[in-house]
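Lay summary. Proteins are chains of building blocks that fold into shapes, and those shapes determine what they do. In this project we predict the shape from the chain. Here is one chain we studied, written as its sequence of building blocks.
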Amino acid sequence: MVALTPSAPRAAEAATPVVATCELEGVVDSGSGAYLADCVRRAEAMEASALLVRLDTPGGSLEATRTIVRAFLGASVPVLVWVGPSGARAGSAGVFITLASNLAAMAPGTHIGAAHPVVGPAGEDPEAVGGAQRARKLENDTVAFAESIARQRGRNAEWAASAVRDSVSVPADTARQLRVVEQVASSEAEFLDQAQGHTVRLANGDSVRLSTAGARLEALSPSASQRVVHALAHPSLVYLLFLMAALGLLVELAHPGGLVPGLMGAVALVLALVASSALPVHAGALLLLLLGAGLIFAELFVTSGLLGAAGVVLLALGGLFLVDRFDPGWFVDRSFRVSWAWVVPTTAVLGGAAAYVVWRSAQTRRLPQRGGDAGLVGEKGTTVAPVSPEGGEVFVHGEHWRATAPSPIRRGAQVVVRRVEGLTLFVDEVKT
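And here is the predicted shape, written in a compact code that computers can read:
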């Protein structure tokens, strides 16, 4: 019988392969691009057996996508991409990231494709000066980008080209049959088991036999700045931040010295600007949001109802057009926008608040005047000195006033104000 030395458990642990893991969920932006490139460097530094990336994206920035693709193609560690879990997708820019991996798998119920560059009306209009030419140039450049990645990784270059030209999208099983991905796996662990023994070629030309079955997973977390930029790069969040900034600053300008609305508006504006740097934000939509917020705020003073209604409409339009999907530097699917689930409740709340202000203002106008001379007429008080036609003194509305009466009134009697002239009240005694 052989006794295990204290170093035996450590040796066994050292023999277990280590796979570094990271994930890309949501938009491909500058934050997530820097994070994935950093994950490649960290996986290389720790001499991991492979880097496993879990992917679920609607697409994103072309520049960030190129950063990720360059990192994957130049990696000295095998890069594995798993599109999952079920319901996930590798849309638009996600196609290039998946193609750039050494080995790729998709979970059942996922899809990949639709990588056509989004061009605006000017790019689609053959009558527009240079519009059609620019659209074809952008499309051809993107096709070449996709084909070069697919050929370098030994994948279906024809399908990659069709995903760009024709916005082709396929489910997991079809993607495997077309040699877009190598495996269909319902989980990351199953993918690692299937990857065991596969041979992949790295950037330096070396062939590496994967050892991933039963590997110990080492999660690589993003830095604080990468996490913040990626978290803010959400169209609906940017929409709310710009609304908060506009309303907060307008309240502060209308009521200087409040500090809290102005501070909240300033913080929201800074965060919105940071987020807009990672998203294709349409400048015209920002103007609509600002104008809409201004009209709703003006409703507090005008109370016509029309300004508030117009403001709500402009806020809705500004939200719908906030994300510029026609930006040529972005590859995103149609779901990349401020959703109705955010626009409708937000505009409904602000519209309801404006309607409530109008209703309360109408009620207030029907109330009798309480300030000024007219507000004193009908008020009751008490004489603090005898009052006669020649004069006297009464206590009305919390103040002492000079008063006269058509007939003498004793001290301590209750009186009612009939009219006001200057600083003199004309009163009558209240008969009990």
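What the prediction tells us: The chain has a mean pLDDT of 83.
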